[in-house]
Amino acid sequence: MSCYRGKASPDQHTKLRLFADSAGFCQHPSCQRSLFVETDSRNLHIAEMAHVFAANDNGPRAEVELTEEERGAYENLILLCPLCHTIIDKAPEDFPDILLVEWKRRHVERIAAVFGAVKYESRRAAREAIEPPLAENWVIFDEYGPENEYRFDPESELAQVWQRRVRSRILPNNRKVLAILDANRCHLRGQELTTLEQFRQHVDDMEARHLGEGLTTVGRRFPDRMQAILAESTNA
């Protein structure tokens, strides 16, 4: 998701926010192509950040009154596949700013619906909604995670599988769990609210580590209490 346009280039927080909103899919409503493409040997990240109003005064949908900071802001960006990005910039008259903003809004709403980000009537129902993505993430971590023996050989095939699974499965699952928990905060008790925020920090740090540029491996670990969040036996 690189973009080198000086101050019109988004900062790291904005890049991660865009990816989180996209859930790994092009935000063109008629496309929704996966932004991760598997080849025989690699997992390719093809996402491109498109400017609603151009990054410069001569670009598509240019708005000369905008500052460079405003051009690189989250509100002025949409995440697309390379084909959709090329099309909207080569025919800007067919893709006005109001349409691109609407694409982005609809995509966020669609992802929220797919993620099951609705308010459930009970703790049990909310727990049942987050159990499948949490379980899948745990299995992937257990089989391919960095605590396996291959940690002494970062070039091993298992290390490459781990990187692919993090991007294609774990990060989207994390966002799904966060969306459900945020929609059901009313069911959280006592320490669970703190656990939710610790998990949110873990998600942000993990995205920065695996999607960021030049970031270290330092970050909050998965909070142990997440395994029991919303469980009926959780103490108030």
Describe this structure in words.
The protein is mostly helical. It has 2 domains: 6-114, no CATH class; 123-228. The chain has 7 helices and 4 strands. Strands 1-2 form a two-stranded antiparallel ribbon. Strands 3-4 form a two-stranded antiparallel ribbon. Helix 5 packs antiparallel against helix 6 (157-183) and helix 6 (157-183) packs antiparallel against helix 7.
Through-space gap between termini:
42 Å
Tally the structural domains: 2
Number of helices: 7
Number of beta strands: 4
Low-confidence stretches: none
- Shape by Cα distribution: globular
Helix content: 40-55%
Strand content: 5-15%
By secondary-structure content and strand pairing, the structural class works out as: mainly alpha
Strand order of the largest sheet: 1-2
Question: How is the main sheet built?
Answer: 2 strands, antiparallel
Task: Give me the strand/helix succession.
Answer: HEEEHEHHHHH
What's the rounded overall pLDDT mean?
Answer: 86
Provide the gyration radius in Å. Answer: 19 Å
What's the topology here?
Layout: H1 12-22, E1 36-38, E2 43-45, E3 48-51, H2 68-71, E4 77-80, H3 82-90, H4 97-114, H5 123-144, H6 157-183, H7 192-211
Antiparallel strand pairs: 1-2, 3-4
TL;DR?
By secondary structure, this protein is mainly alpha-helical.
Features of the shown structure:
236 residues; mainly alpha; two-stranded antiparallel sheet; 4 strands
